[in-house]
TrEMBL record:
Family from the record: Belongs to the diphosphomevalonate decarboxylase family.
One MF term in the entry's GO annotations: ATP binding
Catalytic function, reaction form: (R)-5-diphosphomevalonate + ATP = isopentenyl diphosphate + ADP + phosphate + CO2
Keyword list, A-Z: ATP-binding, Lipid biosynthesis, Lipid metabolism, Lyase, Nucleotide-binding, Steroid biosynthesis, Steroid metabolism, Sterol biosynthesis, Sterol metabolism
Name the UniProt record assigns to this protein: Diphosphomevalonate decarboxylase
Pathway recorded for this protein: Isoprenoid biosynthesis; isopentenyl diphosphate biosynthesis via mevalonate pathway; isopentenyl diphosphate from (R)-mevalonate: step 3/3
Entry-linked InterPro entries: GHMP_kinase_C_sf (IPR036554), Mev_decarb (IPR005935), Mev_diP_decarb (IPR029765), MVD-like_N (IPR053859), Mvd1_C (IPR041431), Ribosomal_Su5_D2-typ_SF (IPR020568), Ribsml_uS5_D2-typ_fold_subgr (IPR014721)
Any one GO cellular component localisation term in the record: cytosol
Domain Mvd1 C-terminal: 195-351
Coiled-coil segments: none
Organism this protein belongs to: Botryobasidium botryosum (strain FD-172 SS1)
Length: 351
C-alpha cells in the first residue's frame, strides 16, 4: 500500500527591519514591510514530517513529541485548509492523482535548537509545516506562493521559506494576495556575514508578539510615523546595502530599526519593555566597539538587533567575529552564544 509522507525543514529568521503591527489580524497582513537575514544553519531549524492516510480520523499535530490541539478556525487549521485546497486543484487536473485532499494528516515537528536559545519557533515551525505539506501534496508552487500560506500561520514565518536575505513585502490588497516573501539575495551572495546569538534570558516573554503588536497599533502615534515615513525608505536602503555588500549601511539601518521597534513598544499604552539591563549593556558594548573602530578608520564592526525579548543578535563579518565573541564572553562570561552560519563552538575554534 502506498505511503504518503513528506519531510521538510525550515530555518529560523531574524529581522533587520522589524514587522510590528497588523492591518488585518485574520489574514495576518502587516502594517509595514520587513526584511530578515535567515539563520540557515543546521542547528537552527524546524523539521516537519506530514503523512496523509485514509485511516486517519482527524488532523493531528505533535510539537517536539507532544500532541497539540489543532483549533478549529485557528492559524494551524487555516494553513492546512489552504494547502488541501491547492491539492484539490492538482487532483482536479490529474485524474490519476491520489485523492490526498480527502485524507486527514498527521504532522510531527521538531526544533533542533534548544529552548534555551531564546528563539521563537513559530516562524521556522509554520514554514516547515507548509513546506512539508506542499511536498506531500506535490504542489506546483513557488516558495513565495507558499510564504503567503505560512504568513497566515505566523507573520514572520513567511520569511523562513527562503534562506539568506529575505523581504516580506506588505502588499496593498485587502485579500493578502500581494503580501508575501521574496528573496533579496541568497546567503551565498554575502558568505562573510554572520549572526551571533547572545542568550540573555530564556524566560518566556511577558507580552506575546501577537497581543503586543496590536496594542501598539491601537495606541502608538510613533508607529504611524514609522509606517509612513521611516520603513519604506529603510527597506530600499537596506536592500541596496545588501546588494552592494555595504556592511556599514546594513549595520547602521539594522541598529536604527531595532531601536525604533523598541521605541514603539515603549510608546505603546501600557508600555512594553522587551530589553533588560543586560540587553542595554550589550548595546553599549557594541556602540563603543564601533565608535573606536570608526575613529580608527576601520568602519562599523557589528550590528545589534533585538526582537520581542531581551536576547541580542549581533551581525558581523567573518574577520571581526572572533574579536566580538571574545569581547562578549569577557564582559558577559555567563552568556551562551549560537553562531551562524557555522558555530565557533561546533568548529572547535574556541572563543
Ligand atoms: C519580526 N517579530 O519581524 C518581528 C520583530 C518580533 C519583533 O515577527 O502574530 O510571531 O504570529 O504574526 O510573527 C514576531 O511576530 O507574530 C515578529 P504573529 P510573529 O521578526
Amino acid at each position: 500500500m502506498a505511503v504518503y509522507q513528506a519531510t521538510a525543514s525550515a530555518p529560523v529568521n531574524i529581522a533587520c527591519i522589524k514587522y510590528w503591527g497588523k492591518r488585518d489580524t485574520k489574514l495576518i497582513l502587516p502594517t509595514n514591510s520587513s526584511l530578515s537575514v535567515t539563520l540557515d544553519q543546521d542547528h537552527l531549524r524546524s523539521t516537519t514530517t506530514s503523512r496523509a492516510d485514509a485511516s486517519f480520523e482527524k488532523d493531528r499535530l505533535w510539537l517536539n513529541g507532544t500532541e497539540e490541539e489543532i483549533k478549529e478556525g485557528g492559524r494551524m487549521a487555516t494553513c492546512i485548509a489552504e494547502l488541501k485546497t491547492l491539492r484539490k486543484e492538482v487532483e482536479a487536473k490529474d485524474a490519476h492523482a491520489p485523492k490526498l485532499s480527502t485524507f486527514h494528516v498527521h504532522i510531527s515537528s521538531f526544533n533542533n535548537f534548544p529552548t534555551a536559545a531564546g528563539l521563537a519557533s513559530s516562524a521556522s515551525g509554520f514554514a516547515a509545516l507548509v513546506a512539508s505539506l506542499a511536498q506531500l501534496y506535490a504542489l506546483p508552487v513557488t516558495p513565495s506562493a507558499l510564504s503567503r500560506i505560512a504568513r497566515q500561520g505566523s507573520g514572520s514565518a513567511c520569511r523562513s521559506l527562503f534562506g539568506g536575505f529575505v523581504a516580506w513585502e506588505m502588499g496593498v490588497k485587502a485579500d493578502g494576495s500581494d503580501s508575501f516573501a521574496v528573496e533579496v539575495a541568497p546567503q551565498s551572495h554575502w558568505p562573510e556575514m554572520h549572526a551571533l546569538i547572545c542568550v540573555v534570558s530564556d524566560d518566556k516573554k511577558g507580552t506575546s508578539s501577537t497581543a503586543g503588536m496590536q496594542r501598539t497599533v491601537q495606541t502608538s502615534e510613533l508607529l504611524q510615523h514609522r509606517i509612513k515615513h521611516v520603513v519604506p525608505a529603510r527597506m530600499d536602503a537596506i536592500k541596496k546595502a545588501i546588494t552592494a555588500k555595504d556592511f556599514d549601511t546594513f549595520a547602521t539601518i539594522t541598529m536604527q530599526d531595532s531601536n525604533q521597534f523598541h521605541a514603539v513598544a515603549l510608546d505603546t499604552d501600557p508600555p512594553i519593555f522587551y530589553m533588560n539591563d543586560v540587553s542595554r549593556s550589550i548595546i553599549a558594548l557594541i556602540v563603543e566597539l564601533n565608535r573606536a573602530s570608526v575613529a580608527a578608520g576601520k568602519g562599523i564592526k557589528a550590528a545589534y538587533t533585538y526582537d520581542a525579548g531581551p536576547n541580542a543578535v549581533i551581525y558581523a563579518l567573518q574577520h571581526n567575529l572572533r574579536e566580538i565573541v571574545n569581547l562578549t564572553m569577557t564582559y558577559f562570561p555567563q552568556s551562551q552564544a549560537f553562531n551562524d552560519p557555522f558555530s565557533l563552538y561546533a568548529k572547535g575554534q574556541g572563543v
